[in-house]
Design a protein that fits this description.
Shape: globular
Oligomer: single chain
Helix content: 55-70%
Order of helices and strands: HHEHEEEHHHHHHHHH
Length: about 350
């Protein structure tokens, strides 16, 4: 889906720019409040943003994997998982086999990370490996491969790091203003104008992390639908992912290493109330029961058009979620000779063409 990939790149630039604007605005006002010089705060904000953006781009995946407690494995460590990842790598048309990691945790979940398809990793929990059959595991891995193929992982990694930076700055800024009385002399000498700027700085420090998180979560929800659609196409068996999501939703085990900034990267929201199953009321992902109903409403099909139709029926939106050009190209490929009647070279070419659409 080149249109989707291009759209993801544009959204990535826009979203990173929006988060950067919040960070710079916060830096400017905090600089004015503490140093009576907004430019100084702006410069500090720019420096912090550049450092964090570079760290997120080149080391973001390593940070996520380290915080999650993930351990890298080879083909002999868990043959079934390695084989499934290898199969989905071929079907999705990725140029390189992603690294494979396991988190030793009884919770059932997975995520993908990396800056591009040549530098990517797929991570699953030990709980997922124990509770899922092969079809279900294949559905989850295909979903995560879709995030890599659609260039979702770079955006989510960048945003998680930048969001963390904004939260840290806001936390320290508000506490310094509240408890140290910073800027008190300037408030007395500057009159109402200085007091208003201090108030605005405090409000922005409080609200900026909330706005940044809302933007981050809003984008991640749409990407989950698209990854479900692509995952169903890769496996040709939507029920595998639907059944896996059903098991994940019913689980009452919370992922111990889950982090709020990285939550949207997982297959399903890793947070839940103690002793209770996952709730549909979550900001990080679309309602999991809705995702299951869409996959099971594909009427035995596994194409992007089937998913788009099911999405419109279940959400009652009257609109699809898959880009139009991808549907046109996929329909053209599907209209050719069925796989059962195709020769082996034709089958191989069919897989390649379908992968190129994604």
């Amino acid at each position: 889906m080149w249109e989707q990939i291009r759209s993801n790149r544009i959204r990535s630039v826009v979203l990173v720019a929006a988060l950067a604007a919040m960070l710079l605005g916060l830096g400017y006002l905090l600089g004015w409040a503490f140093f009576n010089n907004g430019l100084a705060g702006l410069i500090i904000g720019v420096v912090i943003w550049m450092i964090m953006a570079l760290v997120a781009y080149f080391q973001g995946d390593a940070i996520v994997l380290s915080v999650s407690g993930a351990k890298k494995i080879g083909p002999n460590d868990h043959p079934r998982l390695w084989n499934v990842v290898e199969e989905m790598k071929i079907t999705s048309g990725l140029p390189k086999m992603p690294d494979v990691y396991i988190i030793d945790d009884p919770a059932m979940n997975a995520f993908a990370t990396g800056r591009d398809p040549n530098h990517a990793a797929v991570t699953v929990t030990s709980g997922l490996l124990e509770k899922m059959n092969r079809d279900e595991l294949q559905g989850v891995v295909a979903h995560e491969m879709s995030h890599i193929k659609n260039r979702d992982v770079l955006l989510m990694t960048l945003c998680s790091i930048l969001l963390g930076t904004i939260v840290i700055l806001a936390w320290y800024g508000t506490r310094m203003m509240i408890f140290s009385g910073a800027g008190g002399g300037r408030r007395r000498s500057g009159g109402i104008g200085a007091a208003l700027v201090m108030l605005l700085a405090l409000l922005l420090a409080i609200l900026a992390p909330i706005f940044a998180q809302l933007i981050y979560f809003a984008v991640s929800r749409r990407r989950e639908y698209l990854a479900d659609a692509s995952g169903a196409l890769y496996t040709r068996y939507p029920e595998g992912l639907a059944s896996a999501l059903e098991k994940i939703a019913a689980s009452t085990v919370q992922l111990k290493t889950a982090n709020q900034a990285f939550a949207p990267m997982y297959t399903a929201n890793p947070f839940r109330k103690e002793g209770r199953a996952a709730s549909d009321l979550t900001n990080t992902h679309p309602p999991i029961q809705e995702r299951i109903r869409i996959l099971r409403s594909m009427a035995g099909g596994a194409s992007l058009a089937d998913y788009n139709k099911a999405y419109g029926q279940v959400t009652k939106s009257g609109k699809g979620v898959v880009p139009g050009s991808a549907l046109v190209d996929a329909t053209a490929v599907a209209a050719r000779k069925p796989d059962a009647q195709a020769s082996e070279p034709e089958k191989i070419e069919r897989v390649r063409e379908t992968s190129d659409l994604m």
